[in-house]
Specification:
about 170 residues; mainly alpha; about 75% helix; about 0% strand; elongated
Length: about 170
Amino acid sequence: MNLLEFCQWLENTSLGVEIREGQSWFSLLNGVHLVGMAVAFGTIAIVDLRLLGKGIRRARVSEVASSLLPWTWAGFAVMAASGTLLVFSEAVKLYGNVFFWTKVTLLIAAGLNVLIFHRTVYKRVAEWDLEPVPPRQARVTGMISLACWFGLMAAGRAIPYLDQKL
């Protein structure tokens, strides 16, 4: 089974059909997805802005990050669960949509960015935690993260409106 056949199967499952053809499932899931994205991106943006030396400069980077992390994960979990269900409803359409694949690529890039950050620069956070402007590597991480998330959201919003094919 290739990816397109898998998408066809996924879309034709009872769950995919119910979400797509049900009275309000798609709209409800889309709204939940947007709320999850707002929470996840909002908390990520606050941390990224702190990494850029903007926003909450008096607080330690580690305090800002640790206090927002539960909210970030909760928003991400809601966004991932609702997004997965939305994919069930239109997997074939998404398979050929360049904006969907752009969104997926940017989501992976954002994840790799935070993973690399935590395995490198953040390991030395005690050295620069109170600095109003963190080191260059931390600032670059914040810029990359914001770019990925803004791009991801723009691509996500373009999926239904600009139905470009691969």
